[in-house]
DNA sequence: ATAGGGTTAG
């Protein structure tokens, strides 16, 4: 109705069309936005920019680009707004491996048209370049250096770019050099320390800052949650003067990730009593934390809340639900969430597929994959990781080879290191060590530590000491600090009865601390965590008694344990 | 330009 009234004014008032286009863009109604645009006989640069921004907002980056070319064909010149919008469009929805090249192309355009002098343009170039990985940050720095004048935004963009890349020292250098620091500069630096896990430096900076806002406080709370110091996180959370959904989300997810159901739930109630309604990010964060720690009870309660809210229609929220159920081992509820969804994306399919694969339902996973292709869903790299690892767990070597060649033939652009990892695992487990080794040699990318580690695991399984030695050499080059691979290696020597070899490896391992793995289970709202040789649990002796009984039973039915040291 | 967000092999 309102739209009709506005349409009537379309040609009288030049501000109606941009408003309509933006409105349709927010509601993801791009065809309608395009229709409005086409009704204007002589669109000006402003209107082109509006349409481009609308496409960018809807992740239609190629449409944004062709709008840009249309603009030039109509003998119009891009203005200072055009390029930042175009740069933003590249980041939203464009393929990430082409991002750098796109940005370079736009950069060339900018230099040709000479809009470089407006500080807004190079600032967004810096920002976009720093999203393009290592090469991008170099170009960003070049732009930064070539600027005749810089404002605080230029400095801040450069600093956040370095922090995103994990280059804390470079960021710090710029931070020290900049003539004026605002809230964003301080907060970015704080974020840098937090991301590096250095909470001591972060706290120091937090205290030195001339001023602190809600972002600074939230960053601190988040940092302490990440290192598991919930006391400190809670202390700062209670102390912060103003709270919004973000810190609430952080603290609730923090407790959920630690497995503290009671604390997480009482905080959730407090948040609602404070009059804050969770948004999709809150729900997704909490569900992800539940999935991580296996906090089924809280996840289920969140599901009940979602069922009664508008978020039951959100694809992302439902994906998080499926993942939570799958990771907690409840595949039937995971499937029902999937079936009840009216709209799905690849991630939805991948999440359930991965859940099926993870719990060893290989046949179900493979038939789910064929249902996926039947329903015309384009599988991506993640899909194939699940498919291949399913084959690997079920020992289906031929099927694995088949899917791998399918991947290479039809979805070559999705081929990743991970797939080689799956194939090496599959072939290695099946005893085809040589074939696995040859496959690694043909890889189009550099094999990483995971690849070699997988092959090493297979060498242990089949007691192949010679190949293992060769593999360990490469592994130590790639990850000299990794004790896990050395542990496997010493097991190989142990299995072969080579105790000198074991001693040699053990001495290498001495100064490398291995973070022990842990498993956890939730019973009656409480999470129980277990590590190797752990006697911390109050019912420890009964648990070990049960484990012994299971071992006996396994040995009765023919299980032979592998060598352990 | 700064805080929370879905799927990835051993």
Automatic annotation (TrEMBL):
Keywords: Repeat. Pfam families: E_motif, PPR, PPR_2. One of its GO terms (biological process) is RNA modification. PPR repeats lie at residues 44-78, 151-181, 182-216, 244-278, 314-344, 345-379. GO terms for molecular function: mRNA binding. PROSITE patterns: PPR. InterPro entries: E_motif, PPR_At4g14850-like_plant, PPR_rpt, TPR-like_helical_dom_sf. Belongs to the PPR family. PCMP-H subfamily. This is Pentacotripeptide-repeat region of PRORP domain-containing protein. It comes from Papaver somniferum. The lineage of its organism: Eukaryota, Viridiplantae, Streptophyta, Embryophyta, Tracheophyta.
């Amino acid at each position: 109705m309102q739209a009709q009234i506005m349409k009537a004014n379309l040609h009288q008032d030049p501000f109606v069309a941009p408003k309509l286009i933006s409105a349709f863009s927010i509601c993801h109604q791009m065809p309608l936005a395009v229709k409005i645009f086409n009704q204007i006989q002589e669109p000006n640069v402003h209107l082109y920019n509006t349409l481009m921004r609308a496409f960018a907002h809807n992740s239609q980056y190629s449409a944004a680009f062709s709008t840009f070319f249309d603009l030039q064909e109509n003998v119009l010149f891009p203005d200072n707004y055009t390029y930042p919008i175009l740069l933003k469009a590249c980041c939203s929805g464009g393929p990430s491996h082409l991002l750098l090249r796109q940005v370079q192309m736009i950069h060339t355009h900018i230099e040709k048209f000479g809009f470089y002098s407006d500080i807004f343009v190079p600032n967004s170039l810096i920002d976009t370049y720093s999203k393009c990985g290592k090469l991008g940050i170099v170009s960003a720095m070049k732009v930064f250096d070539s600027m005749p004048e810089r404002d605080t935004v230029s400095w801040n963009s450069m600093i956040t770019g370095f922090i995103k890349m994990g280059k804390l020292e470079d960021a710090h250098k710029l931070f020290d050099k900049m003539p004026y620091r605002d809230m964003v500069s301080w907060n970015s630096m704080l974020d840098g320390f937090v991301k590096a896990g250095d909470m001591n430096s972060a706290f120091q900076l937090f205290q030195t800052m001339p001023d602190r806002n809600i972002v600074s406080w939230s960053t601190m709370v988040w940092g302490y949650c990440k290192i598991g110091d919930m006391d400190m996180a809670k202390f700062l959370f209670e102390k912060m003067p103003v709270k919004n959904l973000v810190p609430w989300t952080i603290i609730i997810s923090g407790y959920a990730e630690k497995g503290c159901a009671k604390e997480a739930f009482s905080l959730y109630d407090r948040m609602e009593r404070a009059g804050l309604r969770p948004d999709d990010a809150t729900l997704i964060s909490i569900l992800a934390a539940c999935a991580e720690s296996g906090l089924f009870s809280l996840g289920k309660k969140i599901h009940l809340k979602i069922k009664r809210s508008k978020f039951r229609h959100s694809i992302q929220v439902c994906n998080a639900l499926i993942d939570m159920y799958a990771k907690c081992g409840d595949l039937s509820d995971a499937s029902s969430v999937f079936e009840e969804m009216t709209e799905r994306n690849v991630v939805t399919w991948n999440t359930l597929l991965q859940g099926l694969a993870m719990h060893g339902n290989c046949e179900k996973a493979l038939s789910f994959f064929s249902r996926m292709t039947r329903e015309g869903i384009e599988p991506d790299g993640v899909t194939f990781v699940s498919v291949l690892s399913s084959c690997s767990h079920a020992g289906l070597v031929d099927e694995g080879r088949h899917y791998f060649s399918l991947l290479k033939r039809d979805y070559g652009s999705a081929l990743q290191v991970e797939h080689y990892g799956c194939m090496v695992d599959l072939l290695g487990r099946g005893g085809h060590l040589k074939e696995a080794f040859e496959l690694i040699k043909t890889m189009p990318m550099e094999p990483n530590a995971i690849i070699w580690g997988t092959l090493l695991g297979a060498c242990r399984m089949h007691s192949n000491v010679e190949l293992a030695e060769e593999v360990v050499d490469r592994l130590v080059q790639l990850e000299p600090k990794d004790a896990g691979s050395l542990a496997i290696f010493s097991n190989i020597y142990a299995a072969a009865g080579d105790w000198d070899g074991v001693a040699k490896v053990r001495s290498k391992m001495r100064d490398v601390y291995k973070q022990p793995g842990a498993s956890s289970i939730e019973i009656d709202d409480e999470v129980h965590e277990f590590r190797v040789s752990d006697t911390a649990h109050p019912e420890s002796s009964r648990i070990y008694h049960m484990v012994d009984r299971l071992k006996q039973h396994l040995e009765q039915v023919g299980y032979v344990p592998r060598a352990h040291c």
